[in-house]
Design goal:
By secondary structure, the chain is mainly alpha-helical. It has 5 helices and no strands.
């Protein structure tokens, strides 16, 4: 491999890693935003006219589902880029224990995936059950 090719490969690797880190930061910000949006929506709806809120009760669920879909697609992109970065580290013959993406394949962060899934399930179920409960209660 020529020095130019090596430099290009290193630059590409660094850029892709930086993009993945930005995507991960985006996921954390998105979780905060959906909580604030849901809280604000419910706080507003619980103080409004009943007819308006019966229709609006479903807006937090819709917003949550849209955010969850975006979250899923972002995670899918992160995994695809991580797979490519793992492939890059394998091609340059790094020792097997080196390279973050290679390390993750043998030491997965399963608790993070479970927590993320739990977070979204609680939001979806909560935003589905709460409108039904409020409609029955009123």
């Amino acid at each position: 491999m020529t020095p130019v090719q090596q430099d290009l490969l290193i630059a590409e690797y660094n850029a892709l890693r930086a993009e993945n880190l930005l995507r991960i930061d985006h996921l954390a910000a998105q979780a905060r935003h959906i909580l604030v949006l849901n809280g604000a929506s419910w706080a507003w709806m619980l103080t409004q006219d009943e007819l308006l809120t019966r229709i609006a009760y479903w807006i937090p669920l819709l917003i949550t589902l849209l955010f969850w879909a975006n979250n899923f697609l972002t995670i899918k992109t992160i995994r695809r880029v991580s797979g490519y970065l793992k492939h890059m580290t394998e091609k340059v013959d790094l020792p097997h224990e080196l390279g973050w993406e290679r390390y993750l394949k043998t030491h997965p962060l399963g608790h993070m995936s479970r927590w993320t899934f739990f977070f979204w399930i609680v939001l979806v179920v909560g935003n589905f059950v709460l409108p039904i409960y409020l409609m029955i209660a009123k």
